[in-house]
Design brief:
By secondary structure, the chain is an alpha/beta fold. It folds into 2 domains: 134 residues, 3-Layer(bba) Sandwich (FAD/NAD(P)-binding domain); 177 residues, FAD/NAD(P)-binding domain, CATH 3.50.50.60. It is built from 8 helices and 24 strands. Strands 5-2-1-9-21-20 form a 6-stranded mixed β-sheet, with helices on one face. It has a 4-stranded parallel β-sheet with strand order 13-12-11-18. Helix 1 runs parallel beside helix 6. The longest helix is centred in the last third of the chain and has 19 residues. It is globular. Bound molecules: flavin-adenine dinucleotide. The site of flavin-adenine dinucleotide has 35 residues, from helix 1, helix 2 and helix 6.
Amino acid sequence: MSENGSGSGSENVSAGRATVAVVGGGYGGAAVAKALDGGTDVVLIEPKDAFVHSAGALRALVRPDWAANMFFPYDRLLSRGRVLRERASSVDPGGVTLASGGRIDADYLVLATGSDYAFPAKTETDSSAEALRRLRVAYDELTGAERVLILGAGPVGLELAGEIRAVWPAKRIVIVDPAPEVLPGFLPEVRADLLRQLAALDIELRLGVRLDEQPPGEPGRAKTFTVPTTPVGDLTAGLTADLTADIWFRCHGVRVNGGYLGDGRLTLPTPKGQVRVTDTLNVTGPAGPYAHVYALGDLTDVAEAKMAGHAMRHADVVARNILAQARGERATATYLPSPVPSALLPLGPGGGVGQLPDTEGGAGGAVPVPAPRVAAYKGADLFVGRFAELFGTA
Ligand SMILES: Cc1cc2nc3c(=O)[nH]c(=O)nc-3n(C[C@H](O)[C@H](O)[C@H](O)COP(=O)(O)OP(=O)(O)OC[C@H]3O[C@@H](n4cnc5c(N)ncnc54)[C@H](O)[C@@H]3O)c2cc1C
């Protein structure tokens, strides 16, 4: 079955149907498990008690009444397959070893363990009740803090600033980033619109500025502090004043979840911790690509911004390839990253900026998405309705 390693002899293979072990039930893992559920025997290995819709995390921080919307139970995701509440500790070409000591042998493997991010962007617990409790604690701390410092002017830092402003019109909000510009690679008019909206929301953006030291205390905990800042490189426009705030949040620094590959039994990750994949999303091992092992989403070295939308498109390609192979056909579906960066970046429920690939222009460019459409597509419900359908809770 496979060109490099095989799951033959698996005790989990039922007669005539291939077993697929999907490691990680985030955006990509849940989507591929669902797509394969009818045609194969799926085992989805995921330590969390519910799917975490990270795109809702920042609103969950500022709206305790809304926060539960970012969790979706797994129990109605699959009709034939099963979700195993476990963590993979090692993967080899024949299957998955679990942290509990158990073992899942499989004909096909899909690695979908994604990435972690600092709280509150991603939850640092496998329990949704505990995640909600931590969000509530941070909400209480934030409520009492007048001056908010956000480190990182990427989409997460910008969205967090917009969510805070939507709830607290009077707080002072400062975003600091050593980069010289926001949203590099995006259309100039999108970046200009973003700066205009931030100014209108009275959100102060200090680009080309680095903190000389990390703020004291934990992020998300109220404690007044002052930190010195320095301009980066030649950017004399950056303000050098000390910064005083009552609470801070770290909005940079993604960590890829590939620790279980550290034993090298399947593949050795890149220096960034990512997994090398081919254009059919097959994992490359020491002797070349495995025909029966796939990876998707933030875990992979696909050259594009790491986004849930991309992970779900990867899932579609992987599902088509595995279903073809299970029918005895060749895996021919491929994934090509778009050369055009795209994103919808709400600034609270009613504003924001975005750009999408220009599917009608034919020149392979991008088109800006105006604030009302960003709000209607995403800002209003942060795609909660779409995930309610996927998880059968609509
Ligand atoms: C605040 C925020 C907002 C975002 N908003 C958007 C957005 O609007 N649109 C967009 O496209 N992208 C957005 N993103 C990016 C998006 O969240 C990621 O790109 C996406 O989560 C990647 O999906 P994934 O399936 O690769 O992995 P993840 O969603 O990270 O899921 C990985 C899963 O694997 C599990 N796992 C980890 N280790 C193991 C293990 N050893 N064994 C078993 N399971 C394991 C984890 O518990 C997790 O459930 C946002 C990110 C953040 C932080």
